[in-house]
Design goal:
about 110 residues, mainly alpha, binds zinc ion
């Protein structure tokens, strides 16, 4: 599946937004902070950098589904916790984004079952 540059840029922006929102939601409900706590801010910045540097943006869906695990183990574990918590809850905050995430997840699953 080929994507043009405009589409990739849109997807990149979208992924950054969703990841940021997921971390914010996680932090608010688990760390009881109004703004991101230091640890979550660190994670958000890290995730943002990984997304920006990702050479597979054109092919893959979301970092959480990516087979090339570019996150270092500690950050990976943290982002997984965030995804596990915020993923199902995003449907109320970001219905379109959550549906799209589900959609990409399904596509990814289909592809990896080949
Ligand atoms: Zn936090």
């Amino acid at each position: 599946m080929m994507m043009n540059k405009a589409k990739i840029t849109r997807k990149l922006q979208h992924e950054r937004e969703v990841v940021r929102d997921m971390i914010a939601l996680y932090c608010r409900n688990n760390h009881g902070t109004k703004q991101l706590c230091d640890k979550c801010r660190e994670l958000a910045e890290y995730a943002d950098q990984r997304t920006l540097k990702c050479p597979f943006m054109a092919e893959k869906s979301f970092c959480s589904q990516c087979k090339v695990h570019c996150y270092k183990p500690e950050m990976r574990e943290r982002i997984r916790q965030v995804m596990r918590y915020s993923g199902p809850r995003m449907i109320f905050h970001h219905p379109i984004a959550a549906l799209r995430h589900l959609y990409y997840t399904q596509i990814e699953k289909l592809n990896s079952n080949k």
